[in-house]
């Protein structure tokens, strides 16, 4: 899992390295405004929601009479222990956890449960409790789910948080003081949200990451820091205040060299570090966003076995839990100060304490008991189905871990209810079987086994009258009969007092299957038990005190369910539902007709088969057709009413109808087929099926076909009727059950909901299945409701789902249920009186199944009987031998005269003859029995002789040694077979090659030609500059500058085009992102095929032709070896011929030498060898004239004697006579040579004798005679040595060749055995040849079609890409044309609006076509007429859009330049041309797009067909290889080669031995070392590659940063220089503009005139400034006078007040009031006047300052603003 996600994490890491922090913005402005408006409205603290208005309710079909409270939740018996953090604590005795769509509040002490339903009806995602335990949070699932905060203990909904995620919340958590709530959403948004939950407001919200998040938490030490972790990541968050508001900044953790892991838990440390767990059991210490150290135990051991989670940090101790069921305590100081060693980042340490919770315990989360501040009591969630109470004080008085509650761990595999009481039994893969009393809401007993349970059935009352028999199937194929009884009642029988109210006793185990048992069912009369399995078998047993096997049948697929026909059916049949749509019906086995056989297989059991064929696509198509037809009829009716007289419109409608009929979607058949969910009988031979996958949403009514001759695996049967199921398109029915009166149909849905249909009595066709009641119960995502049952009294409904939850519902309200059942209790059966010891269980996982055991028993019995017979015969023989030996010994001890002779000890001849006669009779009988076989074998032998012996190319040659008896013969060689040539020239079925390459070449050629042909001429869209009347004449310097600018722009354009071409070439050579080196791909493919212990190895396909080639190759090799030996033997024979002739020559020389030697000095000459007839067999074919004459005479004589004699006998007689003549001749020659030698010697002696006798020799003559004698002796010895040496050398060569031939004979025998094996394999492969040939033909057709479609698709895509490029070019040209038009207008052109209308006006145009004939002219006229109509429509549309008068483009308006008007008309013509080209290109591109889509669909279908054919070929190939591997192969071995020794001796049975070539074994041993070296080398290469990869990534990042920096600098420079971003290429290609130069010249002239006028205005401004200064001076004087007047006013007021005090108050009161009023009025008038004057002065000063800059008077640096001043009364009076 981490291998795939590691890449994703690394990509995520790379994406985050570009910036040190990742800022997450808050919601969009609308949400901010909404939140801001809500924040103003503070929610009252005492505001609550009503739970009755919030919680989800059942859905009921409208206008039905089904009550809403049809079912009432009674109890929950399960626990979703696999869910993360599914255990929270509210107070010291109340735990909460999620159970499907329920929240369960569990009292630890009383074990009572309270429930809260999901408000959304889509399930619950996460829960948490407030730190103060006053509230708890339920985060839900569904569409836009809510987070609901409940108050505890009132359980009232306190707050509802909306809009935090789209589908599901995965985790919620409060901060340390409980003021903020953090939530994390699941897919697809993964939103992290911080809530002010009391005000139901979002504080911050952002996307956490693009992966699943498991946990989020606040740091207890820093409230502004958060941490999230999950699938392959950990992320560190910080809340920061920015100028735009608070933000969340996230930093993802980099694993570096550590393997990425899923992080389930972590702990924040006080200094900001984080300690997290891993998948492999070690701890990771994070400092920042990098790993500081990896903490493990000494010697590299992991901290925990499996996943580890740290969960608490207190008092300097860190506690962790693991999936190994252990709690360990670690020293925090050592962890916090840990540093990595020099070898790596690991830090080794040992835990301080540890607590082993128990065996088979997997701790996933813990919560602290919070009654005391430092409580050591924790509650732990066990993923294997338990809740534990742990004391983690680690003292001597600490109690052991206590299992508070035990549940099933994992999905419920089997559920059934008692037929007599309120009892329920369940089983799961956690190896347990549980029995519940759902009336008392408690668990009665649990029984555990070594294997997981997969099926369960409660025996009916007919089988077990006590109602306590359970049949349970397990995953290893074992079926166990369990008997439930009340052990308390044993006290009255045995006197014992056991514990508990119920126990399960193993009554009988048996193993009928080799795979998991998936279904168990009793026959309706309770006489037969049927079990189904995943091994595609169904086994039958007789029911009784002991269950005895009847037999089994095979079915096409693994069994899904079994159902016996009800009592209403006449026949007692069993319907078998298989997983992929096969349904098989078999008759109940007849026990009376069963015959004992050697196997349990019931091959003759009658059966019928049904294979479901999907009709949903056809149903949908018919519905669409009916709907479209209704709509069409309605439209047609309206059209007829409106247009009765318009016949053309009716024709158009008919054409549209035909088109609509053709556009009906094709029939879709899912492949692979949809799975079968459930089914049940309706009528005899009829049944209902519920399918999943594509075919969900309907109940299909099916029946068995009458034609059952077709292969069950190949047949396709369609349902004859169907029933749509409302709102079940993606939610199929998983399980179905009926109430006892069949008036309620209860369905368990795939979404975990219960659905109940009221039915009419006897409604087998389900016509009344209309209205329904449904309620979400189990988890909506993975809580598939696979088991639903009604109690025996129909008062309870029990459900079990894949989420591990088990619910019981009552059909009556709780009050009525208590009243009706207050006196009832679940009855537990009493134990039997004969209850003895429990039967021995089947615990061996390799135990034999019943069929295998029977087969083995049969074989063992046969072997035992044979051994007994052999032993009896051997015993009898040994006794007879002992008696006979005793008789012989006794006879031998007798005296000779009375001793019996051996002949007398023989049997009576009559007995012997009788025995011979009996023997002959038996032999005759055997010969009669084997007559046919004998004749067949004789014919086969004759054929073999005719083929091998009679077709020999030559006679056998035997070479015999001269001095020894050794001989060597040639091989009988057949003529070279012509089969090899035929095989080599025979066309084999291979994949057609060359098509694809040819297609690619054609595609390249087409692309090149298309590139050249479809290239649109690049015409200059920038029109020629408008020729204007020369108003301003340019100078020579400006003309030269224009020319140089044009040349420079042309050079820049050429340079840019060249650079673009280079970049295009570079990008074309750039490999794609998923590019892989072909060498690496080939190496990986070779490694996958050749590495591994025969796992995943794709075998080479073999066929009969390949095997025949191999056989012929071996025969040719054998023939070649034999021919080589034959050539060497013939060469040796030829050398012997030469040797014999040479020896004869030497013998003659020796004879001459010896004639001159004395007799006593002569050595005997060696015997000369002769060539035997067998050495020269070709001599038989030599003939002479005398031979032919002799043959003729013999022939004539034989014809006279026997007219019927054949020529073959004449040849044989002739050969005999020739051999006799040859022998006589040789004898005669030998006889002649011997006397000749003797006569010559005698003659020589007689000649020498007179010399010796007549005269004496002189000394010189004697000396010469001695010298001659010595020479002759030397020559004699030399000749004899040469002859002996040559003979010995020849014999040595013959012996060497003989040994080599013997070695070759041994190898040829092995080759013969190999030939036999190959021949058997070839015969075996021929059986598959027909099937394989048909598949090969289909595959070749698919490959050819695929290559053709691929070629066409590539061509079409290339053309489409070229069309798109052409369209883009045309659009660019159109834009350039518009830009050219805008440039031609210039700025502030008063005719711009008119010319723009002229330019954009759509006019009537005649298409430019080559008219080659009258028909084309007529067509063009017709087209032009149509076009004119369209153009008229365009003109009307344009005029109507503009809303003004029509534009007259035939006359140039007055004042407008004629050249500009003509240029506008030309540009309009070009624009219209471009629009026509663009329209045509778009039409052709659309046609190519449609063609490409159709080809892509065809290619996909062809590829799928090809893949299916290749899979079929692979399947056949595997079957062939399996058959071939079953053949016996002979391997001759010597004793020293056998190293398989048992107890010091070689066993007689070598079946368990492994035959291996020693050299291969040595090579494999050496290969181990090589592989280790290669592994180290590959590791080095991998490390170097990683380093290089990292370096390249850094370089790429640096280059990207550099490019970004340069881009910013470039943009800043452009803004600095141009004031905005410009196109540099366009700027470089910008040529000189004459109009611009003219405007510049005109600008210079106007600037001179304006400068002159400015100077005049400056003089005027200076005069005005002098006037302003004078006025300012005058005003200053006025201010000074006003100040003096104020002072005088104050003095006068003081004097006046003094005088008033002296006078009487009454005297001056009226006068003072009147005087004050007058003075006030005068002062107000003065202030108004002065304010007006000051404002006028300010405006004049401001106007003068704007004209000539801010100019101040010479005596002041700043002119302060004037404000109205108060004028003293005295001053006013003085003034007046």
What's this, in brief?
The chain is of the alpha+beta class and 1776 residues long. The chain has 29 helices and 61 strands. The two termini are 105 Å apart.
Report on this model:
The protein has 1776 residues and is α+β, with helices and mostly antiparallel strands. 44% of the residues lie in helices and 19% in strands. It is built from 29 helices and 61 strands. The strands form 15 sheets. It has a 5-stranded antiparallel β-sheet. It has a 5-stranded antiparallel β-sheet with strand order 2-56-55-54-53, with no helix packed on it. Strands 20-21-22-23-27 form a 5-stranded mixed β-sheet, with no helix packed on it. A hairpin with a 5-residue loop joins strand 57 and strand 58. Helix 6 packs antiparallel against helix 7, helix 22 packs across helix 24 (1458-1525) and helix 27 packs across helix 29 (1769-1775). The longest helix has 69 residues, at 1259-1327. The protein is extended and about 215 Å long.
Draw up the topology in text.
Layout: H1 2-17, E1 22-24, H2 29-40, H3 51-54, E2 59-60, E3 72-76, E4 88-89, E5 94-99, E6 102-107, E7 113-117, E8 124-129, E9 135-140, E10 147-151, E11 156-161, E12 169-174, E13 181-185, E14 191-196, E15 201-207, E16 213-218, E17 225-230, E18 233-242, E19 245-252, E20 266-268, E21 274-276, E22 283-287, E23 290-296, E24 308-314, E25 317-322, E26 326-331, H4 332-336, E27 346-348, E28 353-356, E29 363-368, E30 377-382, E31 386-391, E32 402-406, E33 412-417, E34 423-428, E35 432-437, E36 442-448, E37 453-458, E38 469-474, E39 479-485, H5 490-494, E40 503-510, E41 517-522, E42 528-533, E43 537-542, E44 548-554, E45 559-564, E46 573-578, E47 582-587, E48 607-611, H6 616-642, H7 647-662, E49 676-683, E50 686-691, E51 698-703, E52 721-724, E53 733-738, E54 744-749, E55 753-758, E56 773-776, E57 785-790, E58 796-801, E59 806-810, H8 814-821, H9 850-893, H10 902-905, H11 909-929, H12 931-949, E60 958-960, E61 967-969, H13 979-985, H14 995-1013, H15 1036-1069, H16 1078-1090, H17 1104-1155, H18 1185-1201, H19 1207-1254, ...
Parallel strand pairs: 23-27
Antiparallel strand pairs: 1-19, 2-56, 3-59, 4-5, 5-6, 6-7, 8-9, 9-10, 10-11, 12-13, 13-14, 14-15, 16-17, 17-18, 18-19, 20-21, 21-22, 22-23, 24-25, 25-26, 26-28, 29-30, 30-31, 31-32, 33-34, 34-35, 35-36, 37-38, 38-39, 39-40, 41-42, 42-43, 43-44, 45-46, 46-47, 47-48, 49-50, 50-51, 51-52, 53-54, ...
Helix pairs in contact: 6-7, 11-12, 13-17, 14-21, 17-20, 18-19, 21-24, 22-24, 27-28, 27-29
């Amino acid at each position: 899992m981490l291998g795939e996600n590691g890449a994703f994490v690394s990509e995520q890491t790379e994406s985050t390295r570009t910036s040190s922090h990742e800022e997450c913005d808050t919601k969009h402005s609308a949400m901010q405004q909404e939140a801001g408006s809500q924040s103003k409205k503070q929610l009252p603290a005492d505001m609550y929601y009503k739970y009755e208005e919030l919680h989800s309710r059942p859905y009921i079909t409208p206008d039905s009479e089904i009550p809403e409270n049809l079912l009432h939740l009674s109890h929950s018996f399960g626990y979703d222990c696999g869910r993360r953090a599914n255990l929270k604590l509210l107070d010291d005795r109340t735990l909460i956890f999620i159970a499907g769509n329920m929240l369960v509040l569990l009292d630890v002490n009383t074990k009572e449960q309270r429930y809260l339903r999901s408000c959304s009806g889509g399930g619950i995602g996460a829960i948490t409790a407030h730190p103060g335990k006053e509230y708890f949070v339920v985060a839900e699932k569904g569409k836009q789910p809510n987070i609901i905060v409940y108050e505890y203990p009132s359980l009232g909904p306190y707050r509802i948080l909306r809009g935090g995620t789209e589908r599901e919340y995965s985790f919620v958590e409060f901060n340390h003081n409980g003021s903020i709530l953090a939530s994390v959403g699941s897919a697809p948004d993964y939103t992290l949200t911080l809530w002010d939950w009391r005000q139901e407001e979002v504080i911050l919200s952002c996307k956490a990451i693009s992966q699943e998040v498991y946990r989020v938490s606040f740091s207890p030490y820093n409230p502004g820091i958060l941490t999230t972790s999950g699938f392959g990541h950990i992320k560190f968050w910080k809340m920061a205040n920015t100028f735009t508001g608070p933000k969340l900044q996230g930093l993802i953790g980099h694993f570096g060299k550590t393997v990425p892991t899923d992080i389930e838990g972590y702990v924040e440390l006080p200094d900001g570090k984080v300690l997290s767990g891993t998948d492999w059991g070690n701890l990771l210490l994070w400092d920042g966003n990098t790993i500081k150290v990896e903490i493990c135990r000494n010697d590299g051991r992991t901290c925990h076995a499996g996943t580890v989670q740290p969960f608490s940090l207190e008092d300097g101790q860190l506690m962790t839990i693991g999936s190994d069921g252990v709690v360990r305590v670690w020293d925090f100081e050592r962890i916090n100060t840990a540093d990595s060693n020099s070898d790596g980042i690991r830090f080794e340490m040992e835990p301080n304490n540890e607590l082993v919770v128990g065996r088979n315990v997997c701790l996933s989360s813990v919560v602290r008991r919070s009654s005391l501040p430092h409580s050591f009591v924790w509650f732990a969630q066990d993923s294997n189905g338990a809740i534990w109470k742990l004391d983690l004080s680690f003292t001597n008085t600490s109690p052991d871990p206590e299992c508070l509650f035990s549940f099933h761990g994992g999905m419920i595999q089997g559920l059934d209810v008692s037929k007599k009481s309120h009892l329920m039994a369940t089983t799961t893969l956690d190896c347990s079987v549980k029995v519940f009393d759902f009336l008392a809401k408690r668990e009665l007993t649990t029984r555990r086994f070594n294997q997981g349970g997969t099926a369960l059935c409660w025996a009916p009352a007919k089988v077990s009258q006590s109602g306590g028999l359970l049949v349970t199937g397990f995953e290893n194929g074992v079926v166990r009969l369990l008997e439930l009884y009340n052990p308390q009642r044993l006290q009255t029988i045995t006197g014992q007092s056991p514990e508990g109210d119920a126990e399960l006793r193993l009554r009988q185990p048996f193993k009928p299957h080799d795979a998991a048992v998936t279904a168990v069912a009793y026959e309706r009369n309770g006489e037969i038990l049927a079990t189904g399995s995943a091994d595609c078998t169904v086994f039958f047993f007789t029911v009784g005190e002991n269950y005895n096997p009847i037999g089994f049948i095979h079915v096409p697929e693994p069994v899904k369910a079994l159902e016996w026909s009800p009592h209403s059916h006449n026949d007692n049949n069993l319907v078998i539902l298989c997983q992929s749509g096969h349904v098989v019906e078999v008759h109940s086995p007849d026990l009376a007709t069963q015959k004992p056989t050697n196997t349990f297989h019931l091959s003759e059991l009658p059966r019928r088969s049904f294979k479901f064929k999907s009709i949903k696509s056809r149903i949908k198509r018919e519905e669409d057709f009916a709907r479209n037809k209704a709509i069409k009829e309605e439209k047609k009716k309206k059209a007829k009413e409106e247009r009765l007289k318009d016949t053309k419109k009716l024709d158009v409608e008919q054409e549209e109808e035909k088109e609509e009929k053709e556009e009906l979607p094709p029939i879709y058949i899912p492949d692979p087929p949809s799975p079968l969910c459930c089914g049940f009988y309706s009528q005899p031979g009829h049944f209902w099926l519920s399918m999943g996958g594509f075919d969900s949403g309907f109940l299909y009514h099916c029946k068995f076909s009458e034609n059952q001759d077709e292969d069950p695996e190949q047949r396709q049967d369609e349902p004859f009727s169907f029933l749509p199921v409302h709102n079940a398109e993606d939610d199929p029915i998983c399980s179905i059950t009926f109430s006892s009166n069949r008036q309620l149909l209860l369905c368990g849905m795939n979404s975990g909901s219960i659905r109940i249909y009221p039915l009419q009595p006897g409604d087998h066709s389900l016509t009344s299945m209309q209205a329904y009641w449904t309620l979400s119960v189990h988890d909506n995502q993975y809580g598939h409701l696979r088991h639903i049952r009604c109690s025996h009294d129909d008062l309870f409904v029990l459900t079990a789902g894949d989420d591990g939850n088990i619910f019981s519902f009552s059909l009556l309200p709780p009050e009525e249920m208590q009243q009706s059942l207050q006196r009832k209790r679940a009855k537990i059966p009493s134990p039997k009186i004969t209850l003895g010891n429990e039967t021995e269980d089947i615990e061996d996982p390799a135990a034999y199944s019943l069929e295998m055991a029977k087969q083995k028993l049969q074989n063992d019995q046969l072997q035992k009987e044979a051994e007994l017979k052999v032993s009896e015969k051997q015993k009898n023989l040994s006794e007879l031998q002992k008696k006979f030996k005793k008789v012989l010994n006794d006879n031998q001890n007798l005296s000779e005269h009375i001793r019996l002779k051996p002949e007398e000890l023989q049997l009576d001849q009559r007995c012997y003859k009788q025995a011979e006669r009996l023997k002959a009779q038996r032999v005759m009988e055997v010969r009669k029995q084997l007559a046919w076989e004998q004749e067949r074998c004789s014919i086969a032998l004759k054929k073999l002789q005719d083929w091998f012996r009679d077709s020999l190319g030559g006679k056998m040659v035997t070479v015999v040694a001269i001095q020894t008896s050794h001989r060597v013969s040639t091989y009988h060689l057949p003529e070279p077979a012509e089969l090899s040539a035929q095989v080599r020239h025979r066309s084999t079925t291979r994949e057609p090659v060359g098509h694809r390459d040819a297609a690619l070449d054609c595609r390249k050629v087409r692309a090149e030609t298309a590139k050249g042909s479809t290239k649109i001429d690049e015409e200059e869209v920038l029109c020629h500059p408008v020729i204007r009347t020369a108003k301003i004449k340019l100078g020579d310097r400006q003309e030269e500058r224009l020319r140089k600018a044009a040349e420079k722009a042309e050079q820049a354009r050429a340079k840019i085009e060249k650079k673009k071409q280079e970049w295009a070439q570079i990008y074309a050579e750039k490999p794609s992102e998923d590019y892989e080196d072909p060498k690496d791909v080939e190496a990986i493919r070779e490694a996958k095929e050749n590495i591994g212990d025969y796992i995943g190895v794709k075998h080479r396909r073999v066929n009969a032709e390949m095997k025949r080639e191999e056989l012929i190759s071996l025969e040719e090799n054998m023939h070649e070896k034999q021919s080589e030996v034959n050539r060497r033997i013939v060469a040796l024979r030829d050398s012997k011929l030469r040797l014999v002739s040479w020896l004869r020559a030497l013998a003659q020389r020796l004879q001459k030498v010896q004639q001159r030697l004395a007799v006593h000095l002569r050595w005997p000459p060696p015997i000369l060898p002769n060539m035997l007839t067998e050495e020269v067999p070709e001599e038989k074919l030599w003939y002479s004239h005398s031979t032919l004459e002799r043959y003729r005479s013999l022939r004539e004589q034989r014809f006279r004697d026997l007219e019927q004699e054949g020529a073959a006998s004449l040849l044989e007689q002739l050969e005999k006579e020739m051999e006799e003549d040859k022998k006589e001749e040789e004898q005669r020659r030998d006889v002649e040579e011997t006397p000749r030698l003797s006569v010559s010697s005698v003659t020589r002696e007689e000649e020498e004798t007179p010399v010796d006798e007549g005269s004496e020799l002189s000394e010189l003559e004697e000396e010469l005679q001695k010298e001659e004698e010595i020479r002759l002796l030397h020559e004699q010895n030399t000749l004899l040595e040469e002859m002996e040496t040559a003979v010995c050398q020849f014999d040595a060569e013959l012996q060497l060749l003989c040994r080599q031939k013997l070695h070759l004979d041994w190898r040829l025998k092995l080759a013969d055995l190999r030939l036999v094996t190959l021949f058997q394999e070839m015969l075996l492969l021929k059986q598959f040849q027909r099937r394989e040939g048909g598949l090969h033909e289909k595959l070749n057709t698919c490959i050819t079609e695929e290559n053709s479609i691929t070629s066409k698709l590539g061509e079409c895509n290339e053309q489409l890409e070229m069309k798109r490029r052409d369209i883009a070019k045309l659009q660019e040209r159109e834009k350039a044309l518009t830009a050219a038009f805008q440039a031609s207008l210039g700025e502030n052109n008063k005719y711009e609006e008119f010319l723009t209308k002229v330019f954009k006006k759509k006019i009537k145009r005649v298409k430019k076509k080559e008219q080659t004939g009258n028909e084309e002219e007529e067509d063009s006229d017709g087209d032009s007429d149509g076009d004119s109509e369209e153009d008229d429509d365009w003109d009307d549309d344009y005029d109507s859009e503009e809303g003004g008068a029509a534009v007259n483009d035939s006359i140039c308006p007055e004042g407008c330049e004629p050249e500009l008007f003509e240029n506008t008309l030309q540009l309009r013509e070009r624009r219209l041309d471009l629009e026509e080209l663009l329209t045509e290109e778009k039409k052709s591109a659309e046609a190519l797009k449609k063609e490409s889509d159709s080809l892509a669909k065809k290619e996909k279908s062809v590829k799928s067909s090809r893949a299916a054919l290749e899979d079929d070929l692979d399947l056949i190939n595997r079957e062939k290889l399996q058959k071939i591997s079953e053949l016996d192969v002979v391997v001759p071995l010597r004793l020293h080669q056998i190293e398989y020794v048992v107890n010091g001796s070689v066993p007689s049975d070598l079946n368990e031995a492994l035959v291996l070539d020693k050299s291969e074994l040595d090579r494999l041993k050496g290969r181990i070392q090589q592989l280790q070296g290669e592994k180290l080398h590959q590791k080095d290469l991998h490390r170097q590659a990683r380093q290089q990869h990292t370096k390249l990534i850094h370089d790429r990042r640096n280059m990207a940063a550099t490019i970004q920096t340069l881009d910013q600098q470039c943009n800043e420079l452009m803004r600095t220089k141009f004031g905005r971003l410009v196109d540099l290429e366009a700027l470089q290609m910008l040529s000189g503009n004459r109009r611009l130069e003219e405007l510049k010249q005109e600008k210079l002239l106007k600037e001179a005139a304006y400068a002159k006028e400015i100077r005049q205005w400056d003089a005027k401004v200076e005069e005005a400034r002098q006037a302003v200064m004078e006025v300012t001076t005058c005003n200053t004087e006025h201010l000074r006078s006003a100040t003096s007047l104020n002072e005088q006013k104050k003095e006068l007021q003081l004097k006046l007040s003094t005088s008033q005090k002296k006078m009487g108050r009454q005297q001056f009161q009226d006068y003072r009031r009147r005087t004050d009023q007058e003075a006030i009025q005068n002062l107000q008038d003065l202030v108004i006047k002065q304010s007006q004057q000051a404002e006028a002065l300010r405006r004049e000063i401001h106007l003068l300052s704007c004209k000539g800059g801010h100019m101040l008077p010479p005596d002041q640096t700043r002119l302060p603003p004037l404000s109205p001043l108060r004028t003293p009364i005295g001053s006013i009076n003085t003034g007046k």
